[in-house]
Amino acid sequence: MDGRLNRRSFLQLCSLGALSSAYPHAHAVKHANQTARVELFAKTGETKIVGRDFPATAVWGYNGQIPGPPIRISHGQSLDVTVNNLLEVPTSVHWHGIRLPNAMDGVAGLTQAAINPGQSFRYQFSPPDSGTYWYHSHVNAHEQIGRGMYGPLIIEEVTPPVVDRELVWMIDDWRLLDDASISDDFSSGHDLSHAGRIGNVPTVNGRFRDVVKVRSGERIRLRLINASNARNFALSFGELLPTVIAIDGQAVTPYKAKAPVIVGAAGRVDLILDMIGDPDSSLIVTDSFYRNEFDLCRFAYDKKPLRNSAINESMSLQPPLLPEPDLSNAQNLEIVIAGGAMGGLQRAIYNGEWLGLREIAQHGYVWAMNDIVGNKLDMSPLISAKRGQTIRLTMRNETAFPHPMHLHGHHMKLLSIDNNVQSDPRWLDSPLLMPKQSMQLAFVADNPGDWLFHCHVLEHHRAGLGALVRVA
Predict the structure, then answer these.
(1) What does the domain layout of the chain look like in residue ranges?
(2) Looking at residue 52, what is its pLDDT?
(3) Strands, DSSP E only, in 10-161?
(4) CB 275 within 8 A of CB 219
(5) Which CATH class is domain 168-301?
(6) How many Cβ atoms are within 10 Å of 191's Cβ, its own excluded?
(7) Alpha carbons 237 and 240: distance in angstroms, whole number
(8) DSSP labels for 219-260?
(9) 135 and 71 in contact (C-beta within 8 Å)?
């Protein structure tokens, strides 16, 4: 036995399930003032990830809990967050998907100094967009996020859709040993060069095989946030046909998801679910992104229905408040992603010098963008733009693995996939680029500063798949 949860242990886990109670709605107290003040403590804690019959799992988390405390404000409010580091290692907080001032972006070594043990840092910004976002560590992120350093950030719309209830699901996977402790094999060579750190225990809000109580006739807004290191999810909701209303925090024209809902690592998807099951029945939410399908959680219908028919109300959100790219006057750039196992990368530029794959691998790097290994925050920018300039970006994935490519401080408009023009372009901050796939995106570089652009498979970023975008 290799120390990980073996098949027998995992099948035993599959029979577990606890009623969703500790973190069912992810609602925080709404703030009446224009500024919401929050205090977070990065610290160790314990949580029963796999149920009462197994030992508690030692984690790192904000306020010692998994996920961290939900932060929920109204659109137009400002945030004032003090982060206190009670860990024994440096940390920082990145506000994923938020278009905020560069100094508040939370990338230690680039936009701020790391928060050392015993120190604090104050983040102050006014989110310009409503939507579903999240916050997470950005120091040694492949380990700190893998140990639980994340939480939800919700910016409520001025006029939200009418629903009976809202759920926030931070979906994740954990690599646990038989004693339910977290495997400390971070930065393993296989994870760095293959699909990243794929865990063996998938969870919703830190709970394995959770049970969520619902009522027939109920309309639910479900905010999905993928907080995993590397796992992508393809979720099916049984007889339900979810309506997608937002992706990566930005509204889309509502549409029925007739195929599984894809949520790439770091991505978010907002759904409307009309619960149509019979009273006292149940429904399994399954994932099928990889070869082996598994059950993520279960909806359990109450004996008493809420109503006999669905709500007849609009599901549309207000359009995004993002600057429209000027494609007639754009800077056209191409980024080619190469490397990893079966990736065909022969050599790359490391610290300004061409090196063979064997040599860069000796430094711990196996991925490159435009033949440049990028993991150092003092590197030259891959993209330089004048403030207000439109960038039209073509990305090509020449590797055998998916890459969710996250651009800090901006959203990108998806124009085409494999040269197929999108009839209803959507705005993304973490587009999932599949193997051998190409995407064309565009954005207005209107947020000054040096911004990180990297694969959010955190092991891929650790192993070289990162770059800088400079807006001046």
Answers:
(1) 7-158, 168-301, 327-471
(2) 86
(3) 35-47, 57-62, 71-74, 78-85, 93-96, 120-125, 131-137, 150-156
(4) yes
(5) mainly beta
(6) 24
(7) 5
(8) EEEEEEEE--SS--EEEE-TT---EEEEETTEEEEEEE--S-
(9) yes
Distance CA 124, CA 86 (A): 21
Q: What top-level class would CATH report for the domain 7-158?
A: mainly beta
- Record the tokens describing residue 107, joined without a space: 């990338």
8-state DSSP, 52: T
What type of residue sits at position 42? A
How far apart (Å, rounded) are the C-alpha atoms in residues 283 and 310? 18
How far is it, in rounded angstroms, from Cα 410 to Cα 387? 12
Question: What three-state secondary structure class fits 121?
Answer: strand
Give the span between the Cα atoms of 188 and 63, in whole angstroms.
28
Angle at 383 between CA 381 and CA 386, to 5 degrees: 105
Bridge partners of 42, per DSSP, are: 62, 85
What's the pLDDT tens digit per position in 135-148? 999 999 999 999 99
Give the Cα-Cα-Cα angle 151, 258, 153 (nearest 5 degrees): 15
| pTM higher than 0.90 | yes
Question: How crowded is residue 326: how many other Cβ atoms within 10 Å of its Cβ?
Answer: 13
Tell me the per-residue pLDDT of 406-442, one tens digit each, with 9 for 90 and over.
999 999 999 999 999 999 999 999 999 999 999 999 9
Length of the chain: 472
Q: In what order do the strands lie in the sheet with 383-385?
A: 383-385, 466-471, 449-455, 403-407, 432-433
Cα–Cα nearest to 449, from 427, 470, 432:
470
The residue among 212, 233, 225 whose CA lies nearest residue 275 is: 212
The amino acid at residue 455 is C
Tell me the average pLDDT across 343-349: 85
Matching fold, domains 168-301 and 327-471: yes
Residue appearing with tokens 């207005």? 444
The domain 327-471 having CATH identifier 3.40.50.10490: the answer here is no
What's the whole-number average pLDDT of the chain?
92
* Measured distance CA(453)–CA(229) in Å, rounded: 16
